[in-house]
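Below is how a single chain appears once it has passed through the pipeline. First comes the sequence as given, then the structure the pipeline wrote out for it. We keep one example in the README because the format questions we get most often are answered faster by looking than by reading.
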Amino acid sequence: MSEIIQVSDIRDEQARLENVISDLIAEARSQGASAAEAGVNLSAGYSVTARLGEVETIEHDRDGGLGVSVYFGHSKGSASTSDLSPEAIRDTVTAACNIARFTSKDKCAGLADADLMATEMPDLDLYHPWRLDIDEAIGQAIECEAAARDFDSRVINSEGASISTHRGVTLYGNSHGFLGGYAGTRHSVSCSVIAQQGDSMERDYWYSANRVPEKLESMTDIGRKAAERSVNRLQPRKLSTRQAPVIFQADIATSLLRSFIGAIRGAAIYRESSFLLDAMGKPVFPDWAHIHENPRLPREAGSAAFDNEGVATRAQDFIRDGVLQRWVLDSYAARKLGLQTTGNAGGVRNLRIDASTGHELAGLLEMMDSGLLITELMGQGVNPVTGDYSRGAAGYWVEHGEIQYPVCEITVAGNLRDMFMNLGAVGCDIDRRGGTQTGSWLVDGMMIAGE
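Resulting structure:
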């Protein structure tokens, strides 16, 4: 069963895939396209899950895909394939060209401007394979779960512990002559267990993720955190309906930051479907707030030297001194709005809101004094057009800066515009596991619906 997937089997594909893209662009030109672009990715890895001390699943995967867009003037056609053979590539280009010939003209369609293409490709140190064979992965997953099950006698069952490791290469090229790519890795460990006390039964989890395996939390710490979170939720109470300050724990607060970015995306703005439609150049957050992206940080989850259109990425502010500075634009949205792309085709990269205080979560609880700490959100009750916010929640009631008891079956409600302006503090307990990073948020005066 022992196996280590070789380091070279992904990165050695990069030169071949570069040739694939070059051939594809040439084929599109030969079929009459005035411009063309293509993206290709290849990934490989495995995941192992252990449950109740035994192996439950072992999954190997190797995936690849290619997407091509061609332009006949301002008419666009797109097609994709998972078959990277020369014949399949020709057929895919032909399909895209056939679509483009029957597509209505759109004056905003086309490649990003040639002078915006990335010309520097810094080494962002994104590739760190985990030299872990299957037997070792199984042993570590069992160790992680055992740490959770041994943490407390009230941990009575497990949904398992999983280890996942993946390597991939991504490339993009277009008929401007741009061709760029990079290899990257991502590894994660997770554990989920069930605790019971009397009639109360609760489930919770914890996970660690990083490009660099040595940066992962230890198996023991992950298991213990999963168990501790489950045990702490036992015998929850219900709250009466009230208005109170709320703290969104750091891993939950990331969803609020994503809602903000969703509201300033170019597509939402030119379609006039955002609650921040009139907010450019105006205060959206308190005057201390700073929200920004830095796409070229070494080793970070969202790092890239160019966006999905080949445009050079750069560090930039979205909120400075509380004021909205720019929309999130790709070239199409930018043309619709009469602006220039912000290099965000494919999204924002390494988004962060700076901490406003040196306090971690415990310090924020003291600042709040009495209120609700949210550790889980449920449902999709966010209206991006109006900003109305209403989601099921669970967490803890806090008094005098101390957690008193767990709570469940509640709903928190408000409007995102008010929530952003009423942001009282952002903690320094930054959740660094993904491309959107923030500390816990203290938001004043939210409605809590309970009994």
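Residues 13-30 form the longest helix (18 residues).

See the next section for the split statistics.
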